[in-house]
């Protein structure tokens, strides 16, 4: 199953990932991204990749 790598040092809290894929990403109380899934179930793969793509600082990577 796919996994998501998060570079929290890069995350600037824009929240575009959460807006695009709220089933997968959310901002925590510090305004940094956190994952709502450990491994990405197949039905969320396209959504997870879309959310990673919109990150303006390339802090998210989906590994298949
Ligand atoms: S879009 Fe990128 S910078 Fe914005 S919250 Fe998500 S991971 Fe962080």
SS element count, helices: 2
Characterize the biggest β-sheet.
3 strands, antiparallel
Shape: globular
- Highest-level CATH class: Alpha Beta
| Average residue-wise pLDDT | 97
Percent in helix: 10-25%
What's the architecture in CATH terms?
2-Layer Sandwich
The set of bound ligands, ions and cofactors reads: iron/sulfur cluster
CATH topology: Alpha-Beta Plaits
Report the structural category: alpha+beta
The amount of beta strand, in percent, is 25-35%
Q: Uncertain runs with pLDDT below 50, 5 residues or more?
A: none
Strand order of the largest sheet: 4-1-5
Total strands: the figure is 5
Radius of gyration: 10 Å
Q: What is the H/E string?
A: EHEEEHE
Overall number of structural domains: 1
The end-to-end distance, rounded to whole angstroms, is: 7 Å
Model description:
With 64 residues, this protein is of the alpha+beta class. It has one domain: Alpha-Beta Plaits (2-Layer Sandwich), CATH 3.30.70.20. Helices cover 22% and strands 27% of the residues. It contains two helices and five strands; from the N terminus they run βαβββαβ. The chain has helices at 16-20, 45-53, and strands spanning 2-6, 25-27, 33-35, 39-40, 60-63. The protein has a three-stranded antiparallel β-sheet, covered by helices on one side. A two-stranded antiparallel sheet has the order 2-3. The longest helix has 9 residues, at 45-53. It starts with a strand and ends with a strand. Iron/sulfur cluster (SF4) binds at residues 11-17, 25, 27, 33, 55, 57, 59-60.
């Amino acid at each position: 199953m796919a996994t998501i790598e998060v570079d929290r040092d890069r995350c600037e809290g824009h929240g575009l990932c959460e807006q695009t894929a709220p089933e997968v990403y959310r901002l925590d109380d510090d305004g940094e991204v956190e994952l709502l899934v450990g491994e990405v179930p197949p039905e969320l793969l396209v959504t997870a990749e879309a959310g990673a793509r919109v990150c303006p600082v390339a802090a998210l990577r989906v590994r298949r």
